[in-house]
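Course assignment 3, question 2. Fill in each field.
Student: A.L.
Task: Predict the tertiary structure for the chain below.
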Amino acid sequence: MAIEALGVNHSDLELRGGLRYIAITDFTDATGVTFDNSGDHAVSAVTGVGDAVLFDLKQGTGSLTTTGTKEGGTILFEHTISFFVPNISSAHLRALESTRNQKLMVFVQDFNGAAYVIGCSEAFALEDDIANQQMFATVSSIEGGTGAALGDENGVTVSITCQSGELPRAFTGTFTPDSSAGTVAIS
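Answer field:
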């Protein structure tokens, strides 16, 4: 069994949690996805991704969680990305509004530099698909407010969910965020 060869190093115990960057793009923009099934469980390249919306997060305001459930003989995973966007602005609201009712592919990078892709699954895909067409991500909730007291933060909390046939895949392709422009290069 492969799990017997899984080692945990002392340095693994001291890694910082949380997400640093979230890049959201339309699933249908991707023209090609290269799945790495050599044991890395990764996506090594995505082509055709256009203008992804980048969110640069403060530590402690973004997370990726995965829950697996088995029904019959199939295990499905529910991935949830949750993040807080402070200081509500017209640009933030416009970017979030554009994600409503869209099929999304989401790239996240944690504070340790590891990147993952959500909304892009090879499991249960049809033969000619670049990825399973039914396992895209969607915005499931947006909750916001200005706060009532001087110490309250104003902003919105966004939740994006995706049902997948596999655990999140590491993204080993190019992920170069430009926080000042609010863009990211993905390939």
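Instructor remarks: The helical segments are 90-97. The radius of gyration is 17 Å.
Grade: pending
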